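Format notes (please read before filing issues)

Several people have asked whether sequences and structure tokens are stored in separate files. They are not. Every record keeps both together, in the order shown below: the sequence lines, then the token lines. Line labels are part of the format and must not be stripped during preprocessing.
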Amino acid sequence: MKRNQYYSGRRKRRRRQKNTAIKFMIIAGTAIGAIITSFLIYNNLKLEDKYILKERIDSIYFSNIENTVDSFTKELAVIEDETIFNDSSFTAKALAIFDVNNKNVLYSKNGYEKIYPASMTKLMTAYMVLNYGNLSDMVTITEDAMIKVGGTSLSGIRAGEILSMEQLLYALLLPSGNDAANAIAIHMSGSVEEFCEDMNEKAAFIGATNTNFTNPHGLHDDNHYTTVYDIYLIINELKDNEKFKEVINTGRYTAEYEDANGVSITREWRSTNRYLIGEANSPEGIIVLGGKTGTTNEAGFCLSLIVNGPNGNEYISIIANSETRNLLYIQMGNLLSQILN
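Then the structure lines:
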């Protein structure tokens, strides 16, 4: 089975863990030696010098913490006081809209509350593809990529068919193919389980620490969850990727590939985003660049968008757990209108 070079399976993972442990022991040993030396020096100092040394250490320590926090947050919008927002028309469980350019939160409701993301999960799967995958890879679809659950969104790929990773990215984000998500995971990591470990590791790395993925597609699992703010962090990492923008801005895509016998297959995928297929209109002056939908019984109706405002600024807008699909788009229109206020 072909795997991305970034992923090396369980054997190399164990080797990395062993090497990390060795490095930790070396660092720990060095640190202990430094502590003992510092202790001996410290005990030979006069009392007034001890106070001076302590003040200097405290100053450096807390300065470094503040600099680290500042460097992380200065590039991000941060939800602070949600009590300043009050609009009873927003009945969805959680939602928020962020000004990417000015790092402002225009509106937020339960932005840090736990939600089920449904197919918004595929944003993180796309992040993995675009940062650690190879779009020119040819992927043979395996039987274990097939989804056996009825009533789920599929791209229609079949075991034995051969598609490029680029085609699978379209299959992932347009028709929201759960089968495409599994195919990507198995190709990149060898198994869905391994891929989810990598997803969670990278999600934590970009700051999405209130997130846990148990699959690459978003079918419901009680332990598969995130927050609106963490979805913002994931989209924020994707927003400058030109391939991502190209794919999410596509209403329809025709893929041509072959089955196991070399027979040519042509399949058209249609976006689930109503804004892209002309079934919903954004407020005047606001251009929808694209995004990702999501729906399960537990997650309700979800939608995340990247849009351009009339001022040229870029915005990320997210709604989770709306009661109906129609209400989802009504509320999204109201949320986007915050840009115009």
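For reference, the curators noted about this record: The longest strand covers residues 287-296. Residues 127 and 237 are 8 Å apart (CA to CA).
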